[in-house]
Specification:
Length: 402
C-alpha cells in the first residue's frame, strides 16, 4: 500500500472519534506544554543570574585574603589579609594577559554632604576599576594616576548617594565628607542596580586606594585585588599564575589568599538553577509517558472495535504490514499533534508568567525540538504494540468477530 492512502485512512479513522482523539492527545499536550514552560522559566532564571554575574565585571579574577595560622590560632577565608598594593603592581607587571589591576580596600563609613548624612560602602580603587567592572560614568570623570600617586581627596559616587545627599542638585564639584575629611566629587556612576548577592551596587563611594588607605581607613593591607584578563580563555592560566606568584612571594608559608575567577562564580551561581530546571523538566516529562500510555490504551480499544474492518481489509488484499503501518500512523499522528498543541500552550504559559509575575523566561529552540521529537517517539513506542496486535489478526477470525 502506498503511504499517501494510508495517511488518509488513518486521518479518517481519527476524525470519526474527534472527542476521543482530543482526550487521547491531552496527556501529550499537557506534558509538552509543561516541559516547554518549566524549561523556559528555568532558562530565564539562569540567564538573569548570568547577567547579574556579568555585571560584576568583565573577565574578572579576584584575589581574596585567605586563612591564617599563628601561635596555634587559625582562621578561615577573609579572617586576615597580607595582600599589599605592591603585590597588585607585580601582578600587573609580570603576568602575561593581565590588562588591568585594581588594589581594593573597602569599609562602611558615615558620609556627609549637602547638610545630610548616609551610611555607605567606601571603596578604595585604582584608575582601572571602571574598566574591570565594565562600569561607565553618567557624569564627570574618573580620577587619574596622578590622583592615586598623590592620595588626592577626590571621589566618584553612585546613583544612590547622589539621590540621598544631592537630590535636585548637581553633585559634581560639591564636597563629600568621609570621616570629616573633605573629598571633592568629580564623577557620578551610571546606575547598575542590585547585584546577584542582593547588594545595591549604586550605594557606593569610590576614592583612590591610596587616599582610602592613608587618609580614611589607616590600613596597610588590601581587602582584595581585582584583575582583568585579556580574554575569557586566558582566565584559568592567569588564575594559576597569580596563585603561583603570590605563593612564591610568601617563601613557602601556608597560603593566606584565595584566587577565584568570574567563570567559577557564574558556574556556582547557575548550578542550582540548572538542577531545578532539569528536575522540573523531568517531572513534566512524566506527563508525556502518561500520555503515551493513554495512546496505547485507546489504540488497543480501537483495534478491538475495528476487528471486523481489519478482517475485511485483509480479505480484499491488505497485508499485515499495511495494517501495522495504518495503526502506527494513527498513534504518531495523535502524539505529534498533541506535541504541536503543547508547544503552543507552553509558549503561552511562559509568556503569561513573564507578563503577570514579572519572571524572565527564555524558551530555547532545543527544548522545543526535543519536546516535539520526544512526543513523536512516544507515539511510535506506545503505538507499536497495538499496531502489531492489529497486524497479527487472523482474517477469518476477524471477519467472524461481532
Amino acid at each position: 500500500m502506498k503511504i499517501g492512502p494510508t495517511f488518509r485512512l488513518a486521518g479518517r479513522a481519527l476524525r470519526r472519534n474527534k472527542m476521543r482523539s482530543l482526550l487521547t492527545m491531552l496527556g501529550i499536550i499537557i506534558g509538552v506544554g509543561a516541559v516547554i514552560a518549566m524549561v523556559g522559566i528555568g532558562n530565564g532564571a539562569r540567564s538573569q543570574i548570568e547577567g547579574q554575574i556579568a555585571s560584576l565585571g568583565q573577565n574578572m579574577i579576584t584575589v581574596f585574603p585567605g586563612s591564617f595560622s599563628s601561635g596555634g590560632a587559625r582562621g578561615g577565608w577573609g579572617s586576615a589579609s597580607t595582600l599589599t598594593p605592591e603585590e597588585a603592581l607585580v601582578i600587573a607587571r609580570e603576568i602575561p594577559g593581565v590588562v588591568a589591576v585594581s588594589p581594593e580596600v573597602r569599609d562602611r563609613q558615615q558620609v556627609m554632604g549637602n547638610g545630610l548624612n548616609w551610611n555607605t560602602q567606601v571603596l578604595g580603587e585604582s584608575t582601572d576599576y571602571l574598566s574591570i567592572r565594565a562600569w561607565e560614568l553618567s557624569d564627570g570623570a574618573m580620577f587619574s594616576e596622578t590622583d592615586v600617586a598623590g592620595a588626592t581627596k577626590v571621589a566618584i559616587i553612585g546613583k544612590t548617594i547622589a539621590d540621598q545627599l544631592y537630590a535636585g542638585t548637581d553633585p559634581i564639584g560639591q564636597t563629600l565628607r568621609i570621616r570629616n575629611l573633605p573629598f571633592k566629587i568629580i564623577g557620578v556612576l551610571r546606575p547598575k542596580g542590585f547585584n546577584f548577592f542582593g547588594q545595591d551596587q549604586d550605594d557606593t563611594v569610590i576614592v583612590p586606594y591610596t587616599s582610602a588607605m592613608r587618609r580614611v581607613m589607616g590600613r596597610t593591607y588590601l581587602s582584595a585585588i581585582l584583575i582583568q584578563a585579556q580574554s575569557p580563555e586566558q582566565m584559568s592560566a592567569i588564575q594559576q599564575s597569580v596563585g603561583d606568584l603570590l605563593q612564591q612571594r610568601r617563601r613557602g608559608r601556608e597560603p593566606d589568599f584565595t584566587v577565584r575567577n568570574q567563570l567559577e562564580l557564574a558556574e556556582a551561581a547557575t548550578a542550582t538553577s540548572r538542577t531545578m530546571t532539569a528536575l522540573l523538566g523531568s517531572i513534566a516529562g512524566v506527563s508525556l509517558i502518561v500520555g503515551g500510555i493513554g495512546i496505547m490504551n485507546i489504540m488497543l480499544v480501537s483495534v478491538t472495535e475495528r476487528t471486523r474492518e481489519i478482517g475485511i481489509r485483509m480479505a480484499v488484499g491488505a497485508h499485515g504490514k499495511d495494517i501495522l503501518l495504518q495503526f502506527l500512523i494513527e498513534a504518531v499522528t495523535l502524539s505529534s499533534l498533541g506535541g504541536l498543541l503543547g508547544i503552543g500552550i507552553g509558549f503561552g504559559v511562559a509568556e503569561a508568567v513573564s507578563h503577570f509575575a514579572g519572571w524572565p523566561t527564555n524558551v530555547s529552540a532545543s527544548a522545543v525540538f526535543a519536546s516535539f521529537f520526544f512526543s513523536a517517539a512516544v507515539g511510535v513506542f506506545f503505538g507499536l504494540y497495538p499496531a502489531k496486535k492489529a497486524a497479527a489478526l487472523d482474517p477469518i477470525d476477524a471477519l467472524r468477530y461481532e
